[in-house]
Design goal:
It is a single chain. This protein has eight helices and ten strands. It has a six-stranded mixed beta sheet with strand order 6-7-8-3-9-10. The longest helix has 16 residues. With 258 residues, the protein is of the alpha/beta class. It has one domain: 3-Layer(aba) Sandwich (Rossmann fold), CATH 3.40.50.300. The relative contact order is 0.18. The protein is 32% helix and 26% strand.
């Protein structure tokens, strides 16, 4: 996949592209307050692949959504590309995501009333690309992902694995500084999971910064570093030991899943 020379944005090579300090997220319901995130500090370097793991209810998805501005933080600071962004309005966050952040969700979130081509082109158009530029980017991505023939199809006519590939293409359409992936293989069979993970690894090898939530230790083994959450707090933050043979196909991570 193609990369851009300024993918790191305002951060220097090897520096942090995303940083959060003292991050807290409190949900209130029926007079009861629940802290989903409790004082989380996190930093992601330019070109780094970081996985977030933890048991169900540990705050993994909430953290990702707060870092991407889909939910507001209750307290704490978030810095993206050297600029503090936690105080942005919803409209400000929307602009920031269009320009610098790509999202991949477990349940795809494709627009059912639009074709595959339109779903992929939309982020680039919203970010200011011309129709010609958006179409060219879409053609490159769908070809790279092996689904160019599906460009005119409705998402509902695609398999789960194909829909997730479209979602990945959409997330990469505006060449984001940061790709946020929330359980991108959680709703897929093993064959489709293998394809999506291979594409994520290829994107990372081309320079894409990725922060991915996963419950699967084998999937997290793709990352450079794993952050473990427990009860909304960081329990561990460790680099992943290099695999003995990095050229081994990603499918081997999934063969053990059965």
């Amino acid at each position: 996949m193609k990369t851009t020379g300024d993918r790191g944005g305002g951060a220097s090579a090897g520096g942090g592209i995303l940083r959060a300090s003292g991050l807290v997220k409190v949900y209130r319901s029926g007079g009861v307050s629940v802290e989903a995130i409790r004082g989380v500090d996190i930093e992601v370097g330019v070109g780094e692949f970081v996985a977030i793991m933890g048991p169900s209810g540990s705050g993994k998805s909430t953290l990702l959504h707060v870092l991407g501005g889909l939910e507001p933080a209750t307290r704490g600071e978030i810095w993206l590309r050297g600029q503090r962004v936690d105080g942005l309005s919803p409209a400000g966050w929307a602009v920031l995501r269009r320009r610098h952040v790509g999202f991949v969700f477990q349940f795809f979130n494709l627009l059912s009333t639009m074709t595959v081509a339109d779903n992929v082109e939309l982020p680039a158009l919203l970010a200011g690309a011309t129709p010609r530029q958006a179409r060219k980017r879409r053609e490159e991505l769908l070809d790279e992902l092996g689904i160019a023939a599906k460009a005119g199809s409705a998402p509902a006519r695609l398999s789960g694995g194909e829909q997730q590939r479209v979602a990945l293409a959409r997330a990469l359409a505006n060449e984001p500084s940061l790709l946020l992936a929330d359980e991108p293989t959680g709703n897929l069979d093993s064959a489709s999971s293998r394809d999506v993970l291979r594409l994520l690894r290829r994107s990372h090898a081309a320079g894409q910064t990725i922060l991915m939530v996963t419950h699967d230790a084998k999937v997290a083994g793709m990352a450079d570093r794993v952050i473990s959450l427990f009860d909304g707090m960081v329990a561990d933050n460790a680099k992943v030991a290099p695999a003995p043979r990095r050229e081994t196909p990603i499918g081997t991570f999934l063969e053990l899943k059965g």
